[in-house]
Design brief:
This protein is α/β, with parallel strands linked by helices and 246 residues long. The protein is built from 7 helices and 7 strands; from the N terminus they run E-H-E-H-E-H-E-H-E-H-E-H-H-E. Bound molecules: nicotinamide-adenine-dinucleotide (NAD).
């Protein structure tokens, strides 16, 4: 089950944290993984780890917010069966959480460009070949901030993540008869957002009692990328230790 041998997967923002865990999990199931990041050294280090672990990976360095760069990357990479839109947060900027009333419009652009335009760019570049081949998987990493009001100063980010979920449903509906599925995964609090003393106190707020790991997300991606998930499309899966139960 969940054999991805013969499939090529692109994971954006896979040079560290959640994206790295997704790339590693897909590689373990046999996929050839294109490890994207805007920072070359990060992509290369995860490629080295996967290849050292008997997987198959190559770096594919580009900025998901740069449409021309995305198109070029798809042209040089050959056929891609699985795209995981993971690059997010504030992209190459710092998150800088701020109440919306105190934000400057310039602050809105970075999270919307990476979490929405980045997803549009890669999906648009990937779909034609997927449709032509009759098989494809688009998976977009979203956030629980899109589904529940959170008072943590991330209004544009939450908006872009919600847009990614709506985009997922429309792409799924448009392509439901083509063999291409499109799903989203809304994450709760992850280990890499905590640090030091905060980890234990954040973990106590989560029903299962711990923060999420990249592996938790990678295994969900393996399922959604698999042949076994061919009847699953247009959904947002909440991977959050039970924080938001819908
Ligand atoms: N960490 C969390 O608690 C959390 C919670 C909910 C959702 N998420 C989502 O999970 C995903 C991964 O988050 P993370 O915390 O692991 O991220 P991270 O910031 O630790 O790593 C993101 C990687 O993406 C790369 N990147 C940034 N902008 C890019 C761009 N424009 N093009 C290509 N690569 C780019 C960075 O260089 C970095 O290596 C994001 O979509 C994020 O919004 C994270």
């Amino acid at each position: 089950m969940f054999d991805l041998a013969g499939k090529t997967a692109l994971v954006t923002g896979a040079g560290q944290s959640v994206g790295a865990g997704i790339a590693q999990a897909l590689a373990v199931q046999g996929a050839s993984v294109l490890v994207n990041d805007v920072i070359e050294e990060r992509a290369q280090s995860i490629v080295d780890e996967i290849n050292a672990d008997s997987g198959t990976a190559m770096p594919l360095v580009f900025d998901v917010t740069d449409r021309a760069a995305v198109i070029d990357a798809f042209q040089i990479s050959g056929h891609i069966d699985i795209v995981v839109n993971n690059a997010g947060n504030a992209g190459t900027e710092n998150m800088n959480p701020t109440p919306f009333s105190d934000m400057d419009p310039n602050d809105w652009e970075a999270p919307i460009r990476v979490n929405l335009y980045g997803v549009l760019h890669t999906t648009h570049a990937a779909l034609p070949n997927m449709i032509e081949s009759g098989w494809g998987r688009i998976i977009t990493i979203s956030s629980g901030a899109a589904n529940s009001g959170v008072n943590i100063g991330v209004a544009p980010y939450a908006s872009a993540k919600a847009a990614g979920q709506a985009f997922t449903r429309t792409i799924a509906a448009e392509n439901a008869r083509t063999g291409v599925t499109c799903n989203a995964i809304a994450l709760g609090l992850m280990e890499n957002t905590a640090g030091g003393d905060h980890t234990a106190s954040m973990a106590r707020t989560i029903p299962v009692g711990r923060l999420g790991t990249p592996h938790d997300v990678g295994t969900m991606c393996v399922y959604l990328a698999s042949e076994e998930a061919s009847w699953v499309t247009g959904q947002t899966f909440h991977v959050n230790g039970g924080t938001l139960m819908t």
